[in-house]
């Protein structure tokens, strides 16, 4: 794109080489023999976490931080430098693999300028093999919308936007603690539609005092903008959030929330959208490729404060977590140590980990995919499958396993049938929207 490019500083080549050498020295640990036998590595996505927001929403449990620094602007340049250093550290672990999608999540990624996004994407392209048709998504908050901003992102290479509208009702937006109003949301969507017609709208339902008629009206307003994708999430009260400490009054009960979800599903599907995942609806060919990779138990490298990674090797699958606090992350990343914790997914946990993702899809998963992505035989699912099939929650054919319509509605209960016997915890709400699209 034309315009000012964020300088990334003179990261000494010797320092980059030292970081790469240190990371490469760890590769024998990842490549050593193990109990898994993966015949091929899955597709790889890149997740970039941009952690700051203007104001933390009271329902949000993501790793997001209100910007309260002495300077009016977030430390763009330092953070981009840290992201590039983080990517450098990870290169030996993904060497030779093609990146099929990039997702800028947050926080509020649209707080970052188009120039910062342009600089970062240029540095990514210089270091990894990016697919020519890669889906590159950026989350945007209407409260940070400026005219021509989306055009700048498009020029940088972003080809998909995800706009966090949540509601078109000003009163509901105030109750949710959002920084934008309905007019700002409409203005942002209209410009997005002109610049990047492949865009997603986030909406929430089961809001305080909400009725089914109100939900239908909200969805109708979203459909009028002709998005390519809709993400429709039930408001859930997550632990350690302000809403958990002070729950809003007049929240719909479970039965009403279920009725709302069914009303939403009927309306959106009647408009020609495919409900391909519990909370995701897409027009033909517009499913979120990045998130499909999550649900298909693909790999992803996460860079940025608190970002998570899942990386496969021939004999093991590992998870990593970056340092959570932005300042600590920036300090550690430029020193070549962005990862706070790392663990190998145990053979006993893999079946549950796989199903936690794959059963969210309406079509379920091909039986051969399970073996390909976990390195385990299908027999490792036998106990849970027998129970769930007997209860009418899951169906199985020679080629495919999927939740039944009743199983989809009771997905938490289905998943508990596949927990390792000694693992007591249950998964989070199946409609929590933990993966933003």
Quick one: overall form?
globular
By oligomeric state, this entry counts as: single chain
Q: Pick out the low-confidence regions.
A: 424-436
Helicity, in percent?
A: 25-40%
Distance between the termini: 25 Å
* Rg, Å, rounded: 22 Å
Number of helices: 17
Query: Architecture of the largest domain, according to CATH?
Result: Alpha-Beta Horseshoe
The main sheet orders its strands as 9-10-8-7-6-5-4-1-11
Strand residue content: 15-25%
**CATH homologous superfamily descriptor of the largest domain:** tm_1862 like domain
| Total domain units | 2
Structural class: alpha/beta
Fill in the CATH topology of the largest domain. Answer: pyruvate-formate lyase- activating enzyme
Task: Please characterize this protein's 3D structure.
With 437 residues, the protein is an alpha/beta fold. It has helices at residues 13-25, 27-31, 76-94, 114-127, 149-156, 170-175, 182-195, 212-224, 242-245, 254-270, 289-295, 326-334, 350-358, 367-374, 382-390, 405-409, 411-416, and strands at 44-50, 52-53, 65-66, 98-106, 129-140, 160-166, 199-205, 229-234, 274-277, 280-282, 299-304, 308-313, 316-322, 339-344, 365-366, 394-396, 400-403. The protein has 2 domains: 13-293, pyruvate-formate lyase- activating enzyme, CATH 3.80.30.20; 355-428, Orthogonal Bundle (Arc Repressor Mutant, subunit A), CATH 1.10.10. Helix 1 (13-25) packs across helix 3, helix 3 (76-94) packs parallel to helix 4 (114-127) and helix 3 crosses helix 12. The two termini are 25 Å apart. The model is unreliable at 424-436 (pLDDT under 50).
């Amino acid at each position: 794109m034309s315009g000012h490019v964020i300088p990334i500083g003179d990261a000494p080549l010797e320092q980059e080489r030292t970081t790469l050498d240190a990371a490469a020295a760890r590769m024998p640990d990842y490549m050593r023999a193990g109990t898994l036998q993966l015949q091929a590595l899955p597709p790889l996505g890149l997740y970039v976490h941009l952690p700051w927001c203007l104001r933390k929403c009271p329902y949000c449990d993501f790793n997001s931080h209100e910007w309260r620094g002495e300077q009016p602007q977030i430390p763009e340049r330092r953070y981009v430098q840290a992201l590039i250093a983080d990517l450098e550290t990870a290169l030996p672990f993904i060497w030779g693999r093609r990146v099929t999608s990039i997702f800028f999540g947050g926080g509020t990624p649209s707080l970052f300028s188009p120039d910062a996004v342009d600089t970062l994407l240029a540095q990514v392209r210089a270091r990894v093999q990016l697919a020519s048709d890669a889906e590159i998504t950026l989350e945007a908050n209407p409260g940070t919308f400026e005219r021509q901003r989306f055009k700048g992102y498009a020029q940088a290479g972003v080809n998909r936007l995800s706009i966090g509208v949540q509601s078109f009702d000003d009163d509901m937006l105030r109750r949710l603690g959002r920084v934008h109003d309905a007019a700002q949301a409409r203005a942002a969507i209209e410009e997005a539609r002109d610049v990047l017609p492949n865009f997603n709208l986030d909406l929430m339902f089961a809001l305080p005092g909400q009725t089914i008629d109100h939900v239908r009206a909200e969805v109708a307003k979203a459909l009028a903008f002709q998005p390519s994708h809709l993400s429709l999430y039930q408001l859930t009260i997550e632990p350690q959030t302000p809403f958990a400490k002070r729950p809003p009054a007049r929240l719909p009960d479970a039965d009403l929330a279920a009725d709302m979800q069914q009303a939403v599903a009927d309306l959106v599907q009647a408009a020609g959208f495919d409900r391909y995942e519990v909370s995701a609806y897409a027009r033909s060919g517009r499913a979120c490729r990045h998130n499909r990779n999550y649900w298909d138990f693909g790999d992803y490298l996460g860079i940025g404060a608190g970002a998570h990674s899942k990386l496969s090797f021939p004999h093991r699958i590992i998870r990593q977590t970056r340092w959570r606090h932005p300042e600590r992350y920036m300090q550690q990343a430029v020193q070549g140590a962005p990862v706070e914790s790392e663990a190998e997914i145990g053979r006993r946990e893999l079946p549950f980990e796989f199903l936690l993702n794959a059963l969210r899809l309406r079509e379920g998963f091909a039986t051969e995919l399970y073996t390909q992505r976990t390195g385990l035989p299908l027999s490792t699912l036998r106990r849970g499958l027998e129970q769930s099939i007997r209860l009418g929650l899951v169906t199985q054919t020679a080629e495919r396993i999927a939740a039944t319509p009743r199983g989809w509605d009771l997905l938490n209960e289905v998943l508990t049938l596949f927990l390792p016997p000694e693992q007591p915890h249950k998964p989070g709400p199946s409609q929590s929207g933990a993966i933003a699209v």
